[in-house]
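To whoever picks this up:

The nightly regression suite flagged Putative mRNA 3-end processing factor as changed. Nothing in the input moved, so I suspect the structure step. Input below, exactly as stored in the fixture:
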Amino acid sequence: MTKPLLVFNKNGIFCEQANVYLDPWYPVDRAIISHGHADHSRYGHRKYITHHTNVLIIKHRLGPINVTGKAYNETFVINNVKFSLHPAGHIIGSSQIRVEYRGEVWVFTGDYKLEDDGVAVPFEAVKCHSFITECTFGLPAFKWTLQSKVFEDINHWWATNKEDNQTSVLFGYSLGKAQRLLKYLNTDIGKIYTHGAIENMTEVIRPMVDFPETTRITKETTKKDLLGNIVLAPPSAHGSTWIRKMVPYVTASASGWMAFRGARRRRAVDKGFVLSDHCDWQELLTAIEATGAEKIICTHGYTEIFSRYLREQGYDARTESTQFEGESSESETKEEVDKAS
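Regenerated output under the current build:
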């Protein structure tokens, strides 16, 4: 029996023919990285390959690493295996990784979404024989509202809080979600203040995207400065001593998990906005159909339920365990947040 082109082992997703790993979770010799979130781009690899937009992002996170940037659709060959990166639409600089050898084509999605958020390059379906897909939100219950409506609701929430003489504190991951939120906040309402972790990451990305003006919160920032304005902060800042200077404040979280009843209560926030950088149920099915793939490997999320449904639809579908945890693991480390606050 012929070995699969890509296999899952203790270090990650491995292409033996090229001796290359895709988003490995332990240090390896050569790694192709789908995007900059901490669960996909880890420290310690000898050589990194990623989309050129993601180079600055992972250097900001990981320090002085040996990294090569590639353009979308640019083919590079390692030991007769052809690789190329293609837009995933997840966050800025995110890629699907196409792998081809002797006419066999695999695609590893990393994380992805279909809705064009105006920040990341929109998702493009890539034809393949085997498709490795995340299914973080692989349940029929997940169905996203268009982001235009979500941002209308967020700006209305902010305006209402301002009328009540309160500061609005909106939680979102420092890479990806925070910049998506920032892009569509209405500065006619007031000023946008940022936690240091978000400001640091936004400074890296700002040359590539047109963002509104932001003000970093420092020790000199007062409650009076913040009153009626909005603060973007990472989820891990909630409940910290840092947030006490916001009083009186109202909190909200922007996450796909806000679709679950009780998620807002568990996260101890006043308001939840359903906004995810991953596919919902129908988007997953749409993406899979567009690839033309017959073999589907489901990772992190509702893998058993989703793969069972795919088998019922005639796909050769199975699950694989990874260290990826989807939207729950995209935040920065506690050390990064503490250092930036």
